[in-house]
Design a protein that fits this description.
4 helices, single chain, mainly alpha, elongated
């Protein structure tokens, strides 16, 4: 079993950064670290496979007679990998959500809405209602 990340390792990435703003108890922090550590190897594996597929595409030139087949294979493989990534990420999110108090769940939803609004304003898009 891999070692759990340090106490702040999960804080620097999107969802984890928002969790850091929720004043989690020591027990909640330990639970979140455990959830993230358990999900880490599978997420890493998926990312590595997607990188390998990107490399395969970059190494295949458009004038290669097998180019269309490589593109089709990578497209299909990355579609499945992307689906796995979403499923895994949402499973982690659901597990973490169960660790939060109702007040923290409400606060997290508000923080997520604020983050979404900031991202949309940076892209010049109107905020979703």
């Amino acid at each position: 079993m891999p070692a759990a990340p340090g106490p702040h390792a999960w804080r620097h990435h999107g969802f984890g950064h928002l969790l850091a703003k929720l004043n989690l108890s020591a027990e909640q922090q330990a639970s979140v670290r455990s959830i993230m550590a358990n999900a880490g190897p599978q997420m890493k594996s998926i990312r590595q496979e997607m990188r390998a597929n990107s490399l395969k595409l970059r190494q295949t030139q458009p004038n290669d007679p097998n180019y269309a087949n490589v593109v089709a294979q990578v497209t299909q493989a990355n579609g499945a990998l992307h689906s796995q990534m979403i499923t895994q990420r949402e499973a982690v999110r659901a597990q973490v959500f169960k660790v939060l108090t109702p007040a923290q769940q409400t606060q997290l939803a508000a923080l997520q809405e604020q983050m979404q609004a900031r991202m949309q304003s940076r892209r010049g898009q109107p905020a979703a209602q």
